[in-house]
Design a protein that fits this description.
- The complex is a heterodimer of chains A (232) and B (288).
- In chain A, 34% of the residues lie in helices and 27% in strands.
- Chain A has helices spanning 42-50, 72-78, 95-101, 113-119, 121-125, 136-148, 166-181, 193-199, 222-230; strands at 2-13, 16-27, 31-36, 60-62, 65-66, 80-83, 154-158, 185-190, 202-207, 210-216.
- In chain A, the strands form two sheets. Chain A has a six-stranded mixed sheet, sandwiched between helices. Chain A has a four-stranded antiparallel sheet with strand order 2-1-4-5, with helices on one face.
- The longest helix of chain A is centred in the C-terminal third of the chain and has 16 residues, at 166-181.
- In chain B, 73% of the residues lie in helices and 3% in strands.
- Chain B has helices at residues 2-31, 38-56, 60-81, 92-113, 140-162, 164-174, 176-181, 186-211, 219-233, 238-258, 263-277, and strands at residues 129-132, 136-139.
- A two-stranded antiparallel ribbon of chain B has the order 1-2.
- The chains are: A alpha/beta (232), B mainly alpha (288).
- Chain A binds chain B through residues 50, 52, 71-73, 76-77, 81-82, 84, 88, 90-93, 97, 100-102, 104-106, 132, 146, 150, and chain B through 164, 167-168, 170-171, 173-175, 177-186, 285, 287-288.
Chain lengths: 232, 288
């Protein structure tokens, strides 16, 4: 079943067009990577899906419903949660309060405080600390946990690995496996191609706002990906 | 002994000023809204109390049963219908719109009630006082107002730090875009915030109307006092606002003791002095 489908999705920042007629589908339960260089439109795409950038209703279809014109708080209630780039935890809230913020979407499901602490045991010991006192990796875990608390059907992850040590990135991606095992569909946006491809079954490669390449990861020639990535 | 008296009277007066300031501090803290009409809304609340006592025969304290819901509804509607529209365009639009609201309220009141002074009559409590050893005497009413101020701030702290709604308020204050991504309807939350701010404005207005005479033009001075209390205490710190109000009250009391003409000016001078020494107030809340 197709969970997310974009139909000729275009997006603008003022007069600047950041996305050009993107047609992309994400099936229920799969993990899809979106890769591309800086400025390829990856984050813009996630924003358009999450509602931060408004588009025409039919440009974004979720569960066969048009959602392109809905606001972010309406969209998260439908079951699309975003882990924003740079984590964006609330600095004056404690770790646990940040996690609890995820419950404002009022969605029921497998994820609650207890489950998130099982997934990221380190957060439990840090739960009363203010969010900015955590290390980058711990903050990323809190940001993922916060989004999971809204029990999303579709989880959008924007640059999970940004600014983190390789060993921490590995930990977080391992935990993502637990998330997908719950049946949650995941869209990964990454500049780290190998990391993203290892975790995904299919990928889309964006280049300057256009869809340059799409294929399943298995047996795909990395040289072709590199060509699409850099547009050489 | 005289100085102790001045400190006590001034400190109690500070309860008043911090009560004026709570609504202002809240709307700035949560939606970065500098509400120029805040003082006029205090005065409006006093007039709503006046009308309520006229038509229902309630005494002013009891009139809060009417004034509080009326002001809450007004705040909610004002934010939802008007102020939300101004928040995406930077700092200037909300300033201009609330300045306009200020003028509308003042002239509306002038039209409806004339330029006469009015008062809310509460009876004996207005002049009752407690005699303390050493010849000190404390007014029961200022003491009551001070207690209300403490109670108001304490209940707001509970709201902010112990409830789900308060958590949402703090999150939106930190980062409204991300809060929206978490499923919070910012516009509804802002409306609720101004509604709650107006509950405290309603209480401040009625207590103000019992203490002194008021006229339609009384708002801007309350606004300035509220601003000064908030700034002296440090933005975003409610207990700081109480201290800020007390600093203002004590400075005024000292000024008045030197020369009655100096009362108001002494408060403003204290404010200026603190602004020079500590530009972000006495107890600014540290942010990331």
């Amino acid at each position: 079943m197709t969970l997310l489908r974009t139909q000729n999705l275009s997006a603008f920042y003022g007069d600047f067009q950041a996305l050009f007629e993107i047609n992309l589908t994400v099936e229920q339960g799969e993990t899809v990577a979106i890769i591309g260089a800086n400025g390829a439109g990856k984050t813009t795409f996630l924003r358009a899906v999450a509602g931060t950038i408004e588009s025409a209703p039919e440009m974004v279809m979720f569960d066969d419903q048009p959602i392109g014109d809905k606001t972010p708080h309406e969209i998260v209630r439908l079951g699309i949660a975003m882990v924003p780039e740079g984590r964006r935890l609330f600095p004056s809230l404690s770790v646990e309060e940040n996690l609890l913020l995820g419950t404002h979407s009022e969605r029921k499901g497998p994820w609650n405080l207890k489950r998130v602490y099982e997934l990221f045991p380190r957060l439990y010991d840090l739960r009363h600390l203010p969010a900015p006192s955590l290390s980058g990796g711990q903050q990323q875990m809190a940001a993922v946990g916060r989004s999971l608390m809204s029990n999303p059907r579709l989880l959008l992850c924007d640059e999970l690995s940004l600014g983190l040590a390789p060993v921490v990135i590995r930990d977080i991606y391992q935990c993502l496996g637990t998330v997908t095992a719950e049946g949650t569909t995941v869209v990964l946006v990454e500049q780290d191609i190998n990391r993203a491809l290892d975790a995904s079954a299919r990928f889309y490669c964006f280049q300057e706002g256009h869809l340059a390449l799409t294929a399943s990861v298995k047996g795909f020639d990395r040289a072709a990906i590199t060509a699409a990535y850099f547009g050489v | 002994m005289n100085w102790i008296n001045i400190l006590i009277q001034g400190g109690l007066l500070g309860g008043f000023y911090s009560l004026f300031a709570i609504g202002l501090s809240m709307s700035f803290g949560i939606m970065r809204l500098v509400n120029i009409a805040h003082g006029d809304l205090i005065v409006l609340a006093a007039y709503v109390g006046l009308v309520a006592t006229w038509y229902t025969g309630l005494d002013p304290f009891m009139s809060l049963v009417i004034v509080v819901p009326v002001m809450f509804a007004l705040g909610y509607a004002l934010q939802r219908g008007l102020l939300n529209q101004t928040l995406s365009g930077g700092l200037l639009p909300p300033l201009l719109v609330t300045f306009g609201i200020s003028i509308i309220i003042q002239n509306g009141l002038l039209q409806g009630f004339g330029a006469y002074d009015h008062r809310l009559q509460e009876g004996a409590i207005e002049t009752a006082s407690l005699r303390l050893p050493g010849g000190l005497s404390i007014g029961v009413y200022p003491l009551l107002v001070f207690a209300v101020a403490i109670l108001a701030i304490a209940s707001l702290q509970l709201l902010f730090y112990r409830t789900r709604l308060g958590r949402a308020f703090r999150a939106v204050s930190d980062d409204s875009d991300t809060a929206e991504l978490m499923g919070i309807d910012n516009r509804k939350l802002y409306a609720l915030a101004l509604g709650i701010a107006m509950v405290f404005t309603a209480i401040a207005g009625v207590l103000f109307g019992i203490r002194t005479i008021f006229a339609p033009s009384a708002g801007p001075i309350r606004l300035i006092l509220a601003f000064e209390a908030v700034i002296i205490g440090g933005l975003g710190n409610m207990w700081g606002t109480l201290i800020g109000g007390m600093v203002l009250g004590i400075a005024q009391a000292i000024g008045a003791a030197v020369d009655p003409n100096w009362q108001t000016l002494a408060g403003h001078l204290a404010f200026l002095a603190i602004l020079i020494v500590r530009p972000s107030g006495l107890f600014p809340r540290t942010r990331d």
